[in-house]
Amino acid sequence: MAIVKMKKFTLLTFESKKQKILKRIQGLSSVEFINLQDDDFLKKYEDLKQLYKDDANLESSKYEEDLSKAKFGVEFLNKYVPTKSGLKALREEKLALTLDELEEKVKSFNWTASYDKAKEKEEQLAKLDSQVTKLQAEIDILTPWQNLDVPFSELKTLKNTSYYLGTIAKSYEDMLIQELSNAYIEIISRGTNDINILILANKEYDESISETLRSIGFSAFKTEHKDVALKLILDFKHQIEETKSKKFFVKEEISNFEEDLRKLELAYDYFASKVERNKASKNFLKTKNVCAIQGWIADADSDELKTICDNLLNDDYYMEFEDVKEEEIDDVPIKLKNGELVSAFESVTGMYSYPKYNEIDPTPLLTPFYLIFFGMMVADAGYGLLVLIGSFLALKFLKLSDSMKDFTKFFFYLSFPTIFFGLIYGSFFGDLVILPTQLIDTNKDVMTIVALSLALGVIQIFFGLFIKVYSLAKIGKGKDALLDAGSWIITLLSIGGIVAVNFLNLPNFLGKIFMVTMIIGMILVVIGGGRAEKSFGAKAGQGLYSLYGITGYVGDLVSYTRLMALGLAGGSIAGALNLLINTLPGVAAIIVGPVLFILFHIFNLGLSLLGAYVHTARLQYVEYFGKFYDGGGKPFKAFKGSEKYVKIKRN
């Protein structure tokens, strides 16, 4: 129960049967393939270089095209088909199908017709949007001229009079008026930096007016429209409203395409699974007729894989299972398997790093500490009760995904120590209710909480060191166990013993014994820290520097005071919020008080949970894992079907 025992399998079968067996392996969802085409892998096994690199089959591009169509259809229809409310959606479980059942369903209906309908409506909406854009552009062009009360067509019919309609910079306004004293000038509108003008003059002045306008950068306004600008603008706005109305009815029609959306979702997962099967071939090698497949599978699932091959391939295959070799330790993908409680905390390990195959899974070792530390940091029975009820109802009545279910279980279990420490601290939504179970008064017994925090820190630090001793001894590295961890256990315990002798007035001979063991421990630390160096001077220097690491243990121990700090902070904030609400006068206290109480405490609850989550994780990662855990393993990524819209069952 922890790191799952893995096996490496090698499968040889005919190329013609590859897709059939890949489909069954995908349905099994328990295999991770080894990339036999990787250059580093081929350097290790040069005999394999004579084989060809496998690749996706000719149908791959067709599947990817179908997947692209299904994806477009789903994304487009999701914008307009009404979705169920968040809570209602969470109460509905995904449709569970095997890959064969999924294939039968997709082939039983015409999903391409649903795609064509979606594409047609998308083009309609795009065309209507284009019309709105064009009309709005015309409005933007005409808006500066909306005060012009003459139709554009009438200006063009003038015979003895020339007109100039356009724009100049504001800075030239006075100059224009002075230069064109023999012309009629009307300012139609003013912009930020320019003005829009109409100039009327006898044709005999055309040459001089044109010369003046050129000199000031006059920009002529040209249009094919004939009517008055304002009327045109109003007509275009009316057309925009009509177009938007058409869009509304098209969207209403699309909103009834729920059945088409369901079909396209199934088609998406079906073709996504087929594309993945084709991509998987890029991991394999082959001859003209035979393909070579390698991968990792849990030992418990190996018999099922063998049975699948027997049933599907008969005698047309060769399969071999191998135990993990020493040189493959870094390559083995890691699967964790723990009990109901511990599995909820695997995400904490995953955020740091998965263990390597020859390491221990730290999840069971961090779980009790995480529970205690989190409870101490939130430490409010009311908050814990809310988390307990909320997570219980979610697990009971909502159809959560596996990841969401684990996350909910995580907080479900954390609610119990939160309630426990809340009862001990006497905190129920701060000081809302005085609890008779209070053993520690957070206002008076601060040093008691500090002592408890430091004691828990000492326990966890030594626990981490003992785990390292056990881990190294288990793989036959007794010397490393003594020098890397045992030396620090001896040193730190001896220092603790000396402190106890002085403060508790214990017999002096005990102090002398602890002094001797401390010196022995420090010597072992120096030897262990410098043993990797070559020269005596380097060994001594590095060893003495390693002894300086004792200051790191002091710093680690101080870090545990955050258990006290966050626990007191959350309760103090809750108490301050209650005090603020109690200051509300008469009617306001009755009407506004309950609302403020809910809002304030929801805020404080969120703040407390976030702070406890982050700081508890930090204590595990820095102060605890640093004593015994390296990590660096890669999580197992099963070759399985797409489950975006359906849940894939095993055959």
Secondary structure topology:
Layout: E1 6-14, H1 18-28, E2 31-33, H2 39-44, E3 52-53, H3 60-78, H4 86-90, E4 95-97, H5 99-108, H6 111-142, H7 152-156, E5 161-169, H8 173-179, E6 184-190, E7 194-202, H9 206-215, E8 219-220, H10 229-254, H11 258-280, E9 285-286, E10 290-298, H12 302-313, E11 317-323, H13 340-343, H14 346-352, H15 363-378, H16 381-397, H17 402-425, H18 446-474, H19 478-504, H20 508-530, H21 536-547, H22 550-559, H23 562-582, H24 586-628, E12 646-648
Parallel strand pairs: 4-12
Antiparallel strand pairs: 1-10, 1-11, 2-10, 3-9, 5-7, 5-8, 6-7, 9-10
Helix pairs in contact: 1-11, 1-12, 3-6, 3-11, 5-11, 6-10, 6-11, 15-17, 15-23, 15-24, 16-17, 18-19, 18-22, 18-24, 19-20, 20-21, 23-24
Summarize the structure.
Helices cover 61% and strands 10% of the residues. The chain has 651 residues and is α+β, with helices and mostly antiparallel strands.
Task: Describe this protein's structure.
There is one protein chain. The chain is α+β, with helices and mostly antiparallel strands and 651 residues long. The chain has three domains: 6-54 and 284-331, Alpha-Beta Plaits; 150-227, Alpha-Beta Plaits (2-Layer Sandwich); 340-628, no CATH class. The protein has 24 helices and twelve strands. It has helices spanning 18-28, 39-44, 60-78, 86-90, 99-108, 111-142, 152-156, 173-179, 206-215, 229-254, 258-280, 302-313, 340-343, 346-352, 363-378, 381-397, 402-425, 446-474, 478-504, 508-530, 536-547, 550-559, 562-582, 586-628, and strands at 6-14, 31-33, 52-53, 95-97, 161-169, 184-190, 194-202, 219-220, 285-286, 290-298, 317-323, 646-648. Strands 1, 2, 3, 9, 10 and 11 form a six-stranded antiparallel sheet that branches. Helix 18 runs antiparallel to helix 19 and helix 20 (508-530) crosses helix 21 (536-547). The longest helix has 43 residues, at 586-628. The radius of gyration is 38 Å and the shape is extended. The two termini are 26 Å apart.
